Amino acid sequence: MRSVLRFLSMSLAVIVLAAALGTLVPRPLWPAASAGEGMRHILVLKNPIHTDIAIPVDDAVRQRFHFLVEAGIPADSPEVRYIVFGWGGRAFYLETPTWSELKAGPVMKALTLDASVMHVDVAGAIAEPHPDVAGFDIDGMRFAALLDFIQASFQQGPNGPIHVPNAAYSRFDGFFEANGHFNALVGCNTWTAAALRTAGLRTGWWNPLPVSLGWSMRLYN
Questions:
Q1: Are 30 and 113 in contact, with CB atoms under 8 Å apart?
Q2: CB under 8 Å, gap of 24 or more: what pairs does 15-24 form?
Q3: Would you say residue 153 has pLDDT above 80?
Q4: Is 61 exposed, middle or buried, given 0-12, 13-18 or 19+ CB atoms closer than 10 A?
Q5: Is 43 in contact with 133 (CB distance < 8 Å)?
Q6: Stretch 190-212: mean pLDDT, rounded?
Q7: Mean predicted confidence (pLDDT) in 148-170
């Protein structure tokens, strides 16, 4: 019993150290030079365990993600100001719309290995400043790179991105099959961090939680 407790204590210490270093060590180590003109304002939205990226819409963005409308997500509505993208574990995302519906199966898959999905929602005006919203200005070239990263995260079928039928939290959102596999070490927040680095922003080296991602983003941007 004592050896088990020692192992658990050492494991916890390693995880805490890795999380601290993952926050404090920037990625990339050096800031990138400015790449272009035409600033766009993106948002990172967070809750206690998850982050999303909100992309401001214009005609070009709506055209690029036209498949959302075909899947019943009203991205073409004139009231929409942002399309909100998130990547995550398939079982946890689809089977846990609220915390009261948390079940052991999705949790075990999230802690081990699970397929992934993209969750897409739409939003009107999003208030800033707000504790759960962080805004960043990026130039046009990096904005295009961010859109490429997001689009590449969707798994493609014969007719484009694969919509998951009968899976949504409301009439304004939906799910699509995604590329990559999810686990507790490489999860939704590491996807967000990778997307932000594509957009020329700096994150921590490893950010498994929204709080560590937020700290690193404030430190290095």
A1: no
A2: 18/206, 19/206, 19/208, 19/209, 19/212, 21/205, 21/206, 22/204, 22/205, 22/206, 22/207, 22/208, 22/212, 22/216, 23/204, 23/207, 23/212, 23/215, 23/216, 23/219, 24/204, 24/216, 24/219
A3: yes
A4: middle
A5: yes
A6: 95
A7: 96
